[in-house]
Amino acid sequence: MPMVGSVKRASAEYPVLLNKVPDAPDPLYYLGDYQENLFTNTLAVVGSRAVTLYGEWVINTIVKEVARNGITIVSGFMYGVDALAHRAALDVEGSTIAVMAGGIEYIFPKYQEQLYLDIVARGLVVSEFFTQSELGKWMFAKRNRIVAGLAFAVLVVEAAQDSGSLLTARYARQYGRQLMTVPANLTSANAVGTTQLLREGAKLVTCADDILTLYTNAPDNSRRDASFAVNKRLSLPSPVRSAADYCGAGDPQSVLELLKLEPLSSDELTARLLVASADVLKCLTGLVLTGQVLEREGRYYAS
Amino acid sequence: MDVEVNFIDRSMPGFDIVGLPGREVAESRERVKNAILNAFNEFPYAKKIVVNLAPADVPKEGSYYDLAIAASIVSYMKGVTFPADSAFFGEVSLDGTVRSTRGAFLFTTFAKEHNLTNVFVPGACFDEVRGVRDVNIYPIANLRDLTTYSIIRSNNSMMHTSEYAVDSVSPESDEVDFSEVVGQDMAKRALEISASGGHSILMIGSPGSGKSMLAKALCRILPNLRPEEELEVAKIYSACGLFDPTIFSTKTRPYRSPHHTISYSGMVGGGTIPRPGEISLAHKGVLFLDEFSEFQLPIIECLRQPMENGSITIARSRGSIKLPCDFTLVACTNPCPCGFLGDRKVRCTCKPPQIDRYKRKLSGPILDRIDLFVRVWTPGLERLSESAGLLAHREKTSALIKDRVEAARAIQAHRFVGEGVSVNAKMPNRLVKKYCPLSRVCEDLLDTAIQRCNLTPRSVYKIIKVARTLADMEGAVAITPSQLAESIQYKNI
């Protein structure tokens, strides 16, 4: 039953990890179903607002798996990595906490209202402020310390130079929390920040287990296989035909091989494969309909 | 309109025009009187002249009644008789010459349709109308010619429409040949599909990616106008005073590219005296809208109905007119406000909400009505030289592509005899059911696509129509899953 309330630092229900932060908010306001065990095993997921498809893939693959194992995902409700992380946790019936920059009732950005309502219903929304009608940049910085403060470990997904998520990373180091990041393509502007973190000693993550091993008493391991199977079943449309049925002179396999290396447009595929554009398009349809490839902004990505 | 003239002896002298004459028609009086005076040095002053423009309850506008009024007076003055089924058209000048008047071709074909075999037109308009067969055309340069008209009559029963003097047919300097465009295979393929089946197309690309160039290249592969289409287009252009006789020899389809600051009535037609707008001037041709996102939303909205119906009704207080506007829409736009979303070299500087808003402006009204979506990419320099070498032999010239397009159009012409449409893109749903039966495999493929890609019913019909055109391009009778598969990718955005 979602409720609005507040916890004082002095009380027993205040999140233990957050209490270790010297200037922790007092009180902490919340909206939702306040359960203490929500704060035990937490992973903060932060990153660039201009998230790329790669970041999306990381969140949907790795973070979802982590959430499925009972880890609470904490983030800042900003568009980009934050919003995707919240959504990922909700999609697998996991727990999530959104730390709002403004008051707990101030939904920013506005068009994420549905996400906000979902988090209130199935997770928790917290903030340092009860009501705040104006947002200033300083409030985002203050919110970042709460995100780091609530977290047992912090995962940075993508970060450009001078990204706000690097500030959260700095707080994490200050508070002695484990800092982690995923590798990224050097060609991406979003790799500058995460590469810097790696150089400074952040832990390299390539799969969900790299994160899960940090949590010695993670609950709900049993939920893993059941929900995984359910999700697998739902994603297949029926009836599914093999892509080769209608690909003309094109070979869907060679298209897929190229796409596994990097995302490409249909013109780029045509230039590399030296077949007719029409045949490439037929292969792409086959691959899209069987779920092996998806299209975004005119380019195709192996999923 | 009938022009009746009565000359009354026993009345105060005067000269009146009745029959709801508009301003220019009322002024006819002075023009005609002076013209006759200067041409013949006489005028029936002593009589009371009443000119009636029938029917009396319809307002008359325009200056082309002059010749008819003058002819009736000259007929009385000089005892000239004109043949029974004659039509007169033209404005007179004060000195007696008959001026070139807008709409001569339209008038002549109209007269022909109403079994008026003799048409008197200004001499300056002769070029415009001489191609019209089965009418006797009398070019009248000066009112004096009215007395000797039987000699002036041009013997055009032997003249062929193709004998229109083709003085200067210089190729448009900014036209592009397909073989000049390197790469861009998907766009070129889509443009060929558009030309073959009349499908609308939206090209999305960064500034400098070449989308405008591609759209201009479309000119050269458009199929020639069919005879009945020639007539329709000529009439519209004649009504605007833009008639170009070379249309009958080159048979080029209209290609209109209005700037995005165009007004509503400029696009749709209208004004105080209804004139055809750009969409009608693009009838049976291409309406090219560059910088599509810069057009005002109401103007984009007003394209919806014409694209659906092929005609537009402009209503005015005095009545409404229906103008044809069966055009193919070709549009270009950027992917986001800064233009570089998805570009490999230049980073997009737009915030996600901006991109969202930009996309939403295009969505809904017009997106669902576009058949083909193509992403155009700025070619990398290294690719230019590499592809130029490897693929040069594959680059087809526009002439070659046009032949293929003509072949596909011929199949459609044969298919749609008596059906009221001329191209696949304009098939109403019942004709889609009739001419595009799908095999079980095809239906399954479509079902999967509907689920995966969230297709609306309108999108599904468009996919089938494009597949039909693809089949025609290959000369296939039935639509194969392979063609459907290709067609789906043009809608997958």
Please describe the topology of this protein.
The complex is a heterodimer of chains A (303) and B (493).
Chain A: E1 3-7, H1 16-19, E2 28-32, E3 42-46, H2 53-68, E4 72-75, H3 81-91, E5 96-99, H4 113-122, E6 124-127, H5 137-150, E7 153-156, H6 164-174, E8 178-181, H7 191-199, E9 203-204, H8 208-212, H9 223-235, H10 252-261, E10 264-265, H11 266-273, H12 277-289, E11 293-296, E12 299-302
Parallel strand pairs in A: 3-4, 3-7, 4-5, 5-6, 7-8, 8-9
Antiparallel strand pairs in A: 1-2, 2-6, 10-12, 11-12
Helix pairs in contact in A: 2-3, 3-4, 5-6, 11-12
Chain B: E1 2-8, E2 14-18, H1 23-40, E3 48-54, H2 66-78, E4 86-88, E5 91-92, E6 98-99, H3 104-113, E7 118-122, H4 126-129, E8 136-140, H5 149-152, H6 185-197, E9 201-205, H7 211-221, H8 227-240, H9 247-250, E10 255-256, H10 264-268, E11 269-270, E12 275-276, H11 278-281, E13 286-289, H12 297-301, H13 304-309, E14 311-316, E15 319-324, E16 328-333, H14 352-362, E17 372-376, H15 381-391, H16 398-415, H17 429-435, H18 440-453, H19 457-474, H20 481-489
Parallel strand pairs in B: 2-3, 4-7, 7-8, 9-16, 9-17, 10-13, 13-16
Antiparallel strand pairs in B: 1-3, 5-6, 11-12, 14-15
Helix pairs in contact in B: 1-2, 3-8, 6-7, 6-16, 16-19, 18-20, 19-20
